[in-house]
Amino acid sequence: MFRKYIYSYIIIALLLSAVSAVAQSTLVKGVVTDSKSKERLPYVSITVTGTTIGTSTNMDGQYSLVLKSPSVSLKFTYVGYKTITKTIKPGEPVTLNVQLVEESKMLSEVVVKPGRKASYKNKNNPAVELIQKVIQNKDKNSVEGYDYAQYEQYEKLSLSLSHLSEKFMNKKIFRNYQFLFKHQDSSMIAGDHIMPLYLEEKLADNYFRKDPRKTKEIIKGKKTVNFDKNFIDQDGISGYMNKMYQDIDIYQNNISVISNQFLSPISNNAPSFYKYFIDDTVTVNNTKLVGLYFAPRGKADMLFQGKLYITLDGNYAVQKVFLTVNPNINLNFVRTFQINLEFAQNPDGRYHMSKSTSGVDFALTKNNGKGFYGERTVSIKDFSVNQPPPDSIFQEKKKVIALAPPVNDDQFWQQNRHMDLSSSEASIYTDIDSLQTIKSFKRTMNLVTFLLAGYKSFGPFEIGPANTFYSFNDVEGFRGRLGGRTTPEFSKRIYFETYGAYGFKDEKAKYFLSSTYSLNNKSIYSFPLNYIMASFQHDTKIPGQELQFVQEDNFLLSFKRGDNTRILYNDIFRIDYLREFENHFSYQFGLKVWQHSPAGGLTYQRTAENGPLLENKIKTSELSLQLRWAPGEKFYQSKSYRSPIPGPNPEFRLNYSAGIKGLIGGEYNYQNLSGSVSKRFYLSQLGYTTISLDGGYIFGQLPLPLLYIHRANQTYAYQINSYNLMNFMEFASDHYASVNVDYSFNGFFFNKIPLIKRLKLREAFSFKGVYGGIRDENDPDLHPEMIQFPRNTDGQQTSFSLNKEPYMEGSVGVSNIFKILRVDLVKRFNYLDNPDVSDLGIRARFKFDF
Question: Where do the domains of the chain lie, and which CATH numbers do they carry?
Answer without folding.
Answer: 22-110 (2.60.40.1120), 454-846 (2.40.160.50)
